[in-house]
Amino acid sequence: MFKRIGKNEQQVTFEFLHRTVIAREGDTIAAALLAAGILEFRQAPEDQSRRGPYCMIGNCFECLVQIEGLGSRQACRERVRNGMRVKPHRGRIELEEHDET
Ligand code: FES
Question: The pTM is what?
Answer without folding.
Answer: 0.86
